[in-house]
């Protein structure tokens, strides 16, 4: 099984984008050039960028997990997005003057700080990559809609089950999950902040899923013991992730 320690960022990003367009060798060379950008490292629980900051660069995750979150004035937090290797944390956000949310590291995160002109030139010079990036952004919006559905209509068990199945599919699609087990650095507080539950309720629900033989969770890893059963519990529909590799039908020479 490939791990985040051995997978290069252009490989993870390339695997992701090829769901939306079949990339040529020239396209892959262009993605490899993204590694020329500065590589930065953020310790766990520190912010990559905070709400109100000026978003001067595009952040492309090389390793580790991060989250997008919002805070209320009383300190309560809602996680509204998760990032894994190969994800852009903010592909187009440099257009804004100030960021309206924060990006925080869950585990240690390494990311490439891409100057905006690098993205603009990539899209201009490699239109197939540009189209795939646009498609990828549409999928991110689709994930947000599913998360809204989860918060509004799924119960506690269904919320956690859907999140676990979603993240398994997302990391497996870039080669970072095998035999149903993958790195999962979210704490129970993180899970509570993601699913809109209390930490106590989150803990109780995790124990139920464990006792039913659906998951196996330790401090930093999640095992999906019965993917079919967990998916049924979540009423999971993989369509919103668009993982059916439409790119296989496209010709990279065009």
From TrEMBL:
Single annotated GO MF: DNA binding
Transcription regulation as UniProt keyword: yes
GO biological process: regulation of DNA-templated transcription
InterPro entries: cNMP-bd_dom, cNMP-bd_dom_sf, HTH_CRP, RmlC-like_jellyroll, WH-like_DNA-bd_sf, WH_DNA-bd_sf
A Pfam family that the UniProt record links to this protein: HTH_Crp_2
Keywords (A to Z) from UniProt: DNA-binding, Transcription, Transcription regulation
Domain HTH crp-type positions: 154-228
Keyword Transcription regulation attached: yes
SMART domains (alphabetical): HTH_CRP
SUPFAM superfamilies the UniProt entry points to: cAMP-binding domain-like, Winged helix' DNA-binding domain
Record's protein name: HTH crp-type domain-containing protein
Species annotation: Croceicoccus mobilis
Lineage: Bacteria, Pseudomonadati, Pseudomonadota, Alphaproteobacteria, Sphingomonadales
